[in-house]
Amino acid sequence: MAGPQFPADFLWGVSASAFQIEGAVAEGGRGRSSWDTFCATPGKIAGDETADVACDHYHRYAEDVALMAGLGVDAYRLSFAWPRIQPDGSGKPNPEGIAFYDRLLDALCAAGITPVGTLYHWDTPQPLEDAGGWRNRETALRFGEYARIAAERFADRVPMWIPINEPMVTSIYGYAIGQYAPGEFLLLDALPTAHHQNLAHGLAVQALRAAGADQVGTANNHGPVWPVGPDDGDAASAMDELINRLFADPVLLGRYPDRYTEHLPAGFADDLPAIATPIDFYGVNYYEPQAAASPSPGNPLPFDLVPVEGYPMTTNDSPIVPGALTELLVGMRDRYGDALPPIHITENGCSFDDEVGPDGRVRDGARIEFLEAHLRALADAMAAGVDVRGYFVWSILDNFEWSKGYAPRFGLVHVDFKTLQRTPKDSYRWYRDLIASAR
Which residues are recorded as binding substrate (predicted)? Predict the structure, then answer.
């Protein structure tokens, strides 16, 4: 690709998550998760689809690792399914679950692909959810124990670790507005779940390091928040604090934004030293900016969320704004200064209506344009002095896209969800060539 240049040691990767691709939800001793329960609730998922089979990665992992090897990626960011390793969320590990991840990690290492391990991508063991889930501080303690088990078993092959993926999504979409598992509608009363996830992150960092993990970071989804009009600045700040700073500030600065502390559990300040345990890298998942306006009458939140207009859209209803990635990264550098460790873009991608043509080819030029534009925006941020070390495309495979089911296709590889046949798209070959030219 003619375009921005990246350092020779820049890390090129792809990402996926266990619940979205593994399937085999009742096999190998795996326990039930909050997302299994949510999917089984009529009306929660488009078309009442489930992830029971998904991409069947549990059985087809060797084929998928071969696809990654064909890409030439340096790294694969996977997630371990907590219910597959600890079916009840506590106690002894499940030998069959450990054995599956042993096979997967061994296959990745044999292919020369570095595993980047995420411990939690939203699939809470159902027994813990029944006991309150992330509303309950005990879940954070159980998570620290789970992190120790995973590190003791896998740290010899996993040099980079991410304890929790996108805690904002679990707190806001899962507990505040109920669009994701577990489907609670608590609004600002959901904020204790943010604190407990932050605490779980800190305890996991400590447990991972104690068990010999090399590099430990985080992965938060971030996007700039724009005021709609000149009188909406405070609303935009309130939203930025809720979706961005409530999760970044305590990890990097050891404090929360003042606006929301009244909604946190009593004694939260005592946990801040653990939450702020130093990390080695900061993962940024970027998809889109947001826009906010002053709250309308009757809105209990300090802002109204409004659409970002005037940009092309993905089929997942995300505005395509590559320049907002530059804005975000430069803004984080300016806000956090020396407290911000090196950054990895741990997710960036898009969904379009990708179909296999009569000639067997998947022409997804819009995805190539999306990725090219975002890599240019990333290079602009690096030229402005932001320390970025790697970039991971979301996702290697089309997969189960949460409440929207299988309609949004994010993959570099097309998956026929009836036959499970994998077909590399044009973007797969483009990314392969990009990686080869960057070395």
Answer: 20, 121, 165, 287, 394, 401-402
428 labeled part of a ligand binding site: no
* pLDDT value of position 1: 41
347 an active-site residue? yes
The catalytic residue among 22, 129, 166, 288 is 166
The alpha helices in 322-423, defined as continuous H runs, are: 323-336, 365-383
| Phi and psi torsions of 398, nearest 5° | -55, 145
121 is in an annotated binding site: yes
Tokens 């602009």 belong to which residue?
A: 380
Counting the structural domains of the chain, the total is 1
263 is in an annotated binding site: no
Residues, the chain, total?
A: 439
The response to whether 287 counts as a known ligand-binding position is yes
Question: CB under 8 Å, gap of 24 or more: what pairs does 269-272 form?
Answer: 271/195, 271/198, 271/199, 271/202
Q: Which of 184, 241, 288, 347 is catalytic?
A: 347
Angle between helices 426-438 and 57-71 (to 10 degrees): 50
- Residues of the domain holding 387: 11-438
Tell me if 286 is assigned to some domain.
Answer: yes
pTM for the full model?
0.98
Place of tokens 């509303």: 135
Burial 13-25 (b: 16+ CB within 10 A, else e): bbbbbbbbbbbbb
Q: Alpha-carbon torsion 57, 128, 197, 270, what sign?
A: negative
Q: Is the pLDDT of residue 3 over 80?
A: no
Annotated binding residue 394: yes
Structure tokens at 149: 């088990």
First vs last C-alpha separation in the chain: 12
Is 2 inside any structural domain?
A: no
CATH number of the domain that residue 124 is part of: 3.20.20.80
Q: Which among 200, 178, 185 has a CA at the least distance from the CA of 271?
A: 200
Element (H, E) at 428: helix 426-438
What is the C-alpha separation between 108 and 103, in angstroms, rounded?
9
Give yes or no: 166 in active site.
Answer: yes
Within a domain: 4: no
Residue 322's identity, in one-letter code, is P
Q: Which three-class secondary structure state does DSSP give residue 414?
A: strand
Is residue 214, in this structure, part of any structural domain at all?
A: yes
pLDDT value at residue 2: 53
Per-residue pLDDT tens digits for 53-75? 999 999 999 999 999 999 999 99
How far is the CA of 404 from the CAs of 23, 73, 157, 269, in angstroms?
17, 28, 34, 37
